[in-house]
Amino acid sequence: MMFGTRLRAAMDEHGPLCVGIDPHDHLLEAWGLPRTVEGLREFSLRTVTELAGNVAAVKPQSAFYEQHGSAGVAVLEETLAACREHDLLSVLDIKRGDIGSTMGAYARAYLDPSSALAADSITVSPYLGFGALEPAFGLAEAHDRGVFVLALTSNPEGAEVQHAQCGEAVDGFGGSVAGSIVGQVAARNSAHSPRDPGRFGLVVGATIGSAARELGFDPTDCKGPILAPGVGAQGAGIRELIDVFGSEAIAANQILATTSRAVLSAGPDGVRAAARSLNESLTQVG
Ligand SMILES: O=C(O)c1cc(=O)[nH]c(=O)n1[C@@H]1O[C@H](COP(=O)(O)O)[C@@H](O)[C@H]1O
């Protein structure tokens, strides 16, 4: 089944929430775990078992595994394997972007099923040019995976790059860098529609307010899934999600709202209930 279809089916079944697996040191401590690779493993595998069957996807944040060196990356591999074993979709948050030949190596690392680091989908950064991401797009198609391209990120610093005007406007998407990214993702999803989403998605923060409107485009026109971080610890909630995306796109399960700290801080015995509660409030929209 095509990634966009698989994700939509998971959202229809489990709700529109993706819980990020961000093993911050303070969260390991709050869970009574050591700030070691052993603590990292227990935190990660417990989160997968608690959330499988309760959320549409999880989003391991590679950085928190890399900070432990190769032993941490080995835990990330175990975490992704656990997702596969539990039939839990994964969005591996790596935000990689590089020149084409190097991007090819990244694509093989994270999208080729023969790799221990392969995920169902990944985040990528178009800062070296949208076209430089082609190797990731190609492998995603070859192995039926998904790619979420950063467009309007949840951090305030992103605006200086993403809101910049880049000359030629992409029809219907305005002339900003972000609009150009959204328009190019929409073009790759041209055979799809909001009801039949493509495998190429966007990352658009729930904290961006009216930015997309002011830049002259609607991110939901990308005809793919939209990963929406910023919920919870970064201050966004249901109201902000509706302001950015509209209740129709949320109710149609195009928006994969994602939060990490707000759910993980509930602890090992509370993470499932916290996810179900947030999912419940999200499914009330529309
Ligand atoms: O690609 C991402 O997931 C991402 C994009 C973005 O614009 N903002 C953003 O916060 N993220 C990631 O989403 C997670 C947010 O974590 P919380 O703020 O704890 O919910 C972190 O792992 C971020 O790196």
Report on this model:
The model has no long low-confidence stretch (mean pLDDT 97). The protein has one domain: TIM Barrel, CATH 3.20.20. Helix 7 links the parallel strand 4 and strand 5. Strands 1-2-3-4-5-6-7-8 form an eight-stranded parallel beta barrel, surrounded by seven helices. Helix 3 runs parallel beside helix 5 and helix 6 runs parallel beside helix 7. It has 286 residues and is α/β, with parallel strands linked by helices. It binds orotidine-5'-monophosphate. Orotidine-5'-monophosphate (OMP) binds next to strand 3. Pathway: Pyrimidine metabolism; UMP biosynthesis via de novo pathway; UMP from orotate: step 2/2. One of its GO terms (molecular function) is orotidine-5'-phosphate decarboxylase activity.
Query: Taking strands numbered 1, 2, ... along the chain, how are they ordered across the largest sheet?
Result: 1-2-3-4-5-6-7-8
Sheet with most strands: 8 strands, parallel, barrel
CATH class category name: Alpha Beta
Q: Provide the low-confidence segments as ranges.
A: none
